[in-house]
Amino acid sequence: MARNKQALGLGLAAAAGAVFLTACGGQEGASDGEANGALPSAGEVNVYSGRHYDSDLVLYDQFTEETGIKVNYIEAGGDALIERITQEADASPADIFITADAGILWRADQRDVFRTIDNETLEARVPSQFRHPDGKWFGLSKRARIIIYNKEMGLPDGLVTYADLANPEYRNMICVRSSSNIYNQSLLASRIAHWGAARAEEWAAGVVANFARKPQGNDTSQIEAVAAGICRLGIVNSYYTARFKGVDDPDAAAIGDRFELFFPDQQGAGAHVNISGAGVTRNAPNAENAERLLEFLLREETQGTFASGNNEYPVVEGIDAQGPIAAYDDFKADALPVAALGENQAEAVRIFDRVGWP
Fold it and tell me: What angle do CA 72, 294, 146 make, to 5 degrees?
């Protein structure tokens, strides 16, 4: 799938070396688009995305072929893109900001990145739990933050809930990444929402006492450590596990054979869930096209494809998961509104600092 690449030339050049990728459909005038079977150009939409999946680009091409709207795409880390949009200010070409965590959506909202939109289609498609209460952002896909365990060692007796991870009998068992990671911040923010800050801090201190090693690496590192027996338990996002389960790569499959998934709190609040989500930017020059793209990504025929690009679950109810993660979609999910993850983020960071979670 050929694409023209060019430097954006606006705002921060330091946004992780990001470039615009111009979608195939509707490019270089109406005659080219018509020759390819696409509609004549109907304008453009500029996407700033913290997601890095070819499947997203395929959907953008489909959107262009259907609507004639050219999709210009830039990718970098979520915080780098927030900074870029903020510094570009009124001159920002960004129409949509997409990122991979409700906590980062909250950070963007705090920097006044989004506009409020009143869109009945989006509100009908996205459950209220997975969207901003005032319509500033909407979930596009979801994942769970779960426990994995070494198959040979087995799941420890008595481990049923997230709270159990702090029990002293699980000393030297847990591998998890740094507290600077937004996924861990969101997990602790959810504990604050459910339990209050005092109990959440006691829990975090108990988990630290049960570390098998100092936090390091990403979620893949934790999976590899559990598979190797370095630790018995790991805390990871569900989509990372799908990269080792039901795959053709023999090396990855061998790792997948040595660990299993466990979804906590199935008799209680349910497993912690988070989202990839997006909103239309405050200064969007193509706001109407931006809303049309969000509607497209939330349609029944595109939701599964969008979510499966990162082995996530569709956010729209009634749509089945696709790919390896589909084998692990029968679980009770926490009903906590994901907006609470951002609201409790600052307190989560303070707790991590106080308990010595590196």
Answer: 105
Query: How far from 100 is each of 140, 177, 252, 342, CA to CA, in Å?
Result: 9, 17, 24, 13
pLDDT tens readout for residues 79-138: 999 999 999 999 999 999 999 999 999 999 999 999 999 999 999 999 999 999 999 999
Q: Indicate the domain borders of the chain.
A: 4-142+274-323, 144-272+333-355
Give the dihedral sign, CA 91/94/100/101. positive
pTM of the model: 0.91
Matching CATH number, 144-272+333-355, of 3.40.190.10, 3.40.50.970, 3.40.50.620, 3.90.920.20: 3.40.190.10
4-142+274-323 is classed CATH 3.40.190.10: yes
User: Strand runs (DSSP E) across 207-268, as ranges?
Assistant: 233-237, 259-262
Residue 86's pLDDT is 98
